[in-house]
Amino acid sequence: MKKQTKWEETGYGNLILSSNWGRISYNPNTKIGHGNNAITELGNMILGEEKLTDGEETALYANGDWMILTGDFRKEYEKVFPDLNKCKEIYDKNKEKSGNAWSTA
User: Fold this and answer.
1) What pTM was estimated for this model as a whole?
2) What is the DSSP secondary-structure string of 26-85?
3) Are the beta carbons of 26 and 61 closer than 8 angstroms?
4) Half-sphere exposure of 10 (CA within 13 A, CB side)
């Protein structure tokens, strides 16, 4: 029987799944943690275009890279966690449509 995946609350509604290789985080509203849009607006000024938005996001963090998807992908990650390769497959499958400009991978 597979062990049930349990999200931990970290504040501002953020949830994380932790593993020895990194974590997956879910943020229901990035605007709250970004100073009411200030960081997002600054990022768009630097980029010179409106690529960044605030809202719901699910982020995979491993090996120093952030792989961020805009939206709620918790159910997909729960099915394969803590298998890092399968978690990366979820990111790769969704990054074209839902990839977030803050991603570093």
Assistant:
1) 0.77
2) EES-HHHHTTTTHHHHHHHHHHTSS----S-EEEEEETTEEEEEES--HHHHHHHTT-HH
3) no
4) 14
